[in-house]
Amino acid sequence: MLGWVIVCRGYAAQEMQAALEEKAGALAQCRAVNVQEGLSANMLSRMLCDALHETDSGDGVIFFTEENGGTPYRTAALLSHKHPHCEVISGVTVALLGAAVAWRETLTSESFRLKIVEQGGENVSSLWHQQQKNPPFVLKHAL
């Protein structure tokens, strides 16, 4: 099963997880990380790293953030490059995550990414989708 880490500013992550659990019951391998004002980037990175390891059963972990490009998104993106089968999805809502609960047990992280972005509409994106728009710099010649 895919692990989920919901990371948002303020208490939105905790509120989102509570709303999901009210509808779907307790969610195994799911953690909420609230990003409070004044939290250092180093501390946020450590919190997300802990959440990643707590939720990963070997099938992969999905980070959910409220917006593309914010501090939670960028920090999750840095962690995702170091771990296989780790995805970052932005622009999610409680309704979308509620629909996606069932997909956690049947889809790979890559298939989950594609499906949730497709189902989520224009406000939902992923790190992978953003990188396809702006491919990373590649050095063509050895120095």
TrEMBL record:
InterPro entries: Bacterial_PTS_sugar_comp, PTS_EIIA_man-typ, PTS_EIIA_man-typ_sf, PTS_IIA_man
Molecular function (Gene Ontology), one example: kinase activity
Signal peptide extent: none
Gene Ontology BP, a term: phosphoenolpyruvate-dependent sugar phosphotransferase system
The entry's keywords: Cytoplasm, Kinase, Phosphotransferase system, Sugar transport, Transferase, Transport
One Pfam assignment: EIIA-man
Subcellular location: Cytoplasm
CDD domains (UniProt xref): PTS_IIA_man (cd00006)
Domain PTS EIIA type-4, first and last residues per copy: 1-124
Domain of life: Bacteria
Statement: the UniProt record of this protein carries the keyword Transferase: yes
Keyword Cytoplasm: yes
One GO cellular component term: membrane
Chief location: cytoplasm
Name by which UniProt lists this protein: PTS sugar transporter subunit IIA
